[in-house]
Amino acid sequence: MLWLALAPFAAAALAPPLVHKLGAKAGWILAVVPAALFLGYASMVPLVAHGETLRAGVDWAPSLGIRYAQMIDGLSLTFALLVTGIGTFIVIYAGGYLAGHHHQGRFLAFMLLFMGSMLGLVVADDLISLFVFYELTSITSFLLIGFDHTREPARRAAVQALVVTGGGGLALLAGLVLIRLVTGETSVSGLLATPDVLREAPAYTAIFVLVCLGAFTKSAQVPFHSWLPNAMEAPTPVSAYLHSATMVKAGVFVLMRFAPVLGDTALWGTVLPIFGGATFLTGVILGVRQTDLKQILAYTTVASLGLLVMLTGMGSEHAIAGAVAYLIAHALFKGGLFMVAGCIDHETGTRDIDILGGLAGKMPLTFVAALLGCLSMAGLPPLIGFVAKEVMYDGLWELGGVSIATIVAVAGNALMFCIAGMVLLPFFKRAGAMPKKPHEGPASLWLGPMVLGLTALAAALALDGAVEYFVAPMTSAVSGHAAELHLHLWPTGLYPPVILTLVTIGSGLVLLLLYKVLRAAVAGLLDVIGWGPDRGFDQLLGALVRCAYSVTLLIQPGVMQRYVTATFVILAVVLLAPLLIDGLPAFTWPTNLSEPHYFVVLGSAVAGLWIVIIAKKRLVAIVSLGVQGVMVALIFMLYGAPDLSFTQFMVETLSVIILALVMTRLDLEATDHRTIGHKTKDAVISIACGLGFAVLLYGVVQQPLDMRLSDFYLKYAYDVAHGRNVVNVILVDFRALDTLGEIAVVMSAGLAILALLRLGPLANREPAPPGGGSRPSNASEVSA
To answer: What is the pTM (predicted TM-score) of this model?
Structure first.
């Protein structure tokens, strides 16, 4: 169980060589991996359906209490089956869709990497693991959306998706850190065992907001929704997988996973329905305006995600059951319809519903798959989408009768019905001038949508089994208590949910007949508004770039003095800010400074530094700096560290010699031209840094000294490293790589200085002739 989620990562490494060897047939071979995973997870269904929760884990970072742990309950198992089941057909579909593409191997590798990331997320039982896989879905989706990176729209869409979802990921990370601080738990199952701890915590509001930001950005809730339609720049297999059944539902998964510990509060029951309802209506309204099949499906995906968030926020058992049933139905019909759109595009050369027509007779298998998907999307029997809509209406009516949420649901579902009809229009209406003569595609293109459509039909016809093994266990996991559900495919009377369904169907038919008028009205409204989140993203990104440019000009103007000033100002702020917040440490006079020679040494060090400041000649300043260093070496000796003292003596002696030799060769001005004001500013910065370091070090030495590391070195320096000089053993054995790095840095600096010296004085070099191919002979030319 533990390693199932990692199998796609191993398969990803095999994708490029398999495609190189087998071509498009590699998709069928690679599909064995998700198919085997699907069967593996399917074997756990009976156990989970009977109330068991399966757990496994290994230590990842034991010292930090972090484990790579998995938990299989109704929620994670249903998602795992969707990820692997739909993923099987997507891999097959991608093999046929991108047949002959020179980067098909890379594409399939990216797809399998995403599959592993999503699978790791949904089965995670550790907050750190959950976040790592959550971020991996953003990174792998960036690679997939920007797959055709030679096109600017694809690059922009990939960057937008990464910025929006990555920014939300940072918010989620902050929320998870707060959860850890409040509860002391990193285990998801541990959190679920104590559901009231977070709800009663003072930090609940902050945690709720941060988790919602992470979920809303990933699941494209208003106002973060624009990245999802733009992501349709990706190849259709990406849209069918990431943007219908998996990645975009990661945010919904997070909300459902944390619903038992964050839900059932006024804030939860207000924020989620508001944002979810607004997203639902926004998605269907914008979807009506589109003519591109993928864009239509993308906006209805936005709408469906909003509906799921709204129902999750409602919190009642029937509302959550409606969300669960609709999540399953949406994954089946939307994944299939995206593949249908790709098949139509592949075989006709266009996705424009105003041009497409007459496809029912020329692409009969694709038509059957599209019909099953659209019937479920419209919420018509006998598909699982109809059952989901009935349960949804039942939950909404139970909570408030004819409420705002009920009106939003009916209006949105009526528009969804209309859009489902629009998607079917290309199969019936008269065709326009299509770029290619339409014909049925290969089996790899229609097999997936056909199986998904038939699964939606089978789930409704075998409803009792679907409820027992999938809907009820997942509802129990989300609600936090055992759910007892009794769902029916066919209505048993004319009760309110049935009336709402009839109103939805009737309204949807009217809207479908007037869809061109509706499309024009929405387009006119958007023209009047003239601004949206997508344009706002561009403006925000542009402002960020301009701000970064201004800040760079301010702190990096090409003047060394500015660089040094900026560095030490920031250093002073970092050192003094904690002191201003927490106050100064209590000062006590050190007892070991009672001997007069300590004052002589310290006074000499201070005098040496003061002479450095006031010296008129550089040689005097260099020697005085050496005096200060020698005094530091004496301090080491007085405190019983002769080896360290000897090393310091050597360093100070060599430093004085090298500085004296270098300074005498440089053509530097002898006079300090700084004004009094400039000198005062530099003095203030220097004093602030010095004071900050002094107080910081004093505060550190006042803390109890943990002797464990010192005892470790003393114990093992001779026994393990075979050295009696503990300091030397630390440098050349225990910290050998650190010492090697320091030596490498010094050597690199020495080589750089040698190269500069060999260039010679700048003034003595002639510039290279214009257009010449010879090596530049002027240092200024090199720097240019």
So the answer is: 0.80
